[in-house]
Write a structure and sequence with these properties.
The protein has 270 residues and is of the alpha+beta class. It contains 8 helices and 11 strands.
């Protein structure tokens, strides 16, 4: 069951979610998109009111906080990604699940090893989902630098915001009250998004669109979403959002070059 997003943060909208809750609802799945925590106080309240579980998608949000509580510690369980492009990335595939629930933890440990606790004895059908020892070693070293790297991303985000805030044509990222965002992505809304992206690409500035197809329009989920259902905020965002370059190693000159590229596009467009 899908629900629409908030216009300013792109997070799942808890008001829309509550309208979709039924006796069949078992779990809420808020996504901490772009490195900022969703409105977890509202989701925790809904979970208590309707006796639901919460699974946090923290794939993009390791190190982010809301009112000093870390992403991944609000719900019953949370999933993190160590894909190489994440703020804490491995040299290959990898991930992490957090939970304070002993039963969930035991089940996860079972599922990740072909449903087996004893060699050659399988209690259920599971997966081969071990984190490779080499990846774990690399991540253990990189983890020491995560705070520093997240702070550098926040510094770059502040520069973007300070130098783009006067451009009325743009919508810049909004940090919700109490949020410590770690800017996995710095996402703006810009008119003629695809033309802007091409304009920047021609000047050597790579951008990305997260995401061009709303989840309810993905072929694999069409059976779960009626063609009559509309999610206007998600659909509008898919046409307008543009992720600017942001990574800890960016120089001041590179960030300034991106800013000038955006300003140049808007001037030429006008």
């Amino acid at each position: 069951m899908f629900a629409d997003i908030e216009h300013d943060t792109y997070h799942l909208n808890p008001v829309e979610v509550e309208q979709k809750i039924s006796e069949r609802t078992k779990i809420l799945l808020p996504v901490h998109l772009y490195g900022q925590c969703a409105n977890m106080q509202a989701f925790v309240s809904l979970a208590k009111r309707y006796s639901l579980y919460i699974l946090e998608d923290s794939a993009q949000a390791i190190g982010s906080r809301l009112y000093e509580q870390n992403a991944g510690s609000w719900g019953d369980a949370s999933a993190f990604s160590f894909y190489p492009t994440k703020n804490l990335g491995a040299m290959g595939e990898g991930g992490l699940i957090t939970t304070n629930d002993k039963q969930i933890a035991e089940r996860i440990l079972l599922l990740r090893c072909h449903g087996s606790k004893k060699t050659y004895e399988h209690e259920c059908i599971g997966y081969n989902s071990h984190l490779h020892t080499l990846q774990a070693g690399i991540l253990s070293v990189k983890l020491r630098y995560l705070r520093e790297w997240n702070e550098k991303r926040r510094e770059i985000a502040r520069y973007y915001t300070e130098h783009l805030k006067e451009l009325s044509e743009l919508q810049l990222p909004v940090e919700r009250e109490g949020s410590y965002a770690i800017y996995h992505q710095y996402v703006i809304r810009i008119p003629d998004r695809d033309k802007a992206r091409q304009f920047l690409q021609e000047r050597g500035i790579s951008t990305a669109v997260f995401y061009p197809i709303p989840i309810h329009q993905q072929p694999c989920f069409r059976s779960f979403a009626s063609s009559r259902e509309k999610y206007p905020q998600a659909e509008k965002a898919s046409r307008e959002v543009l992720a600017l370059p942001i990574y800890p190693e960016m120089t001041c000159e590179e960030v300034a070059y991106v800013v000038e590229g955006i300003k140049s596009f808007l001037v030429n467009k006008g």
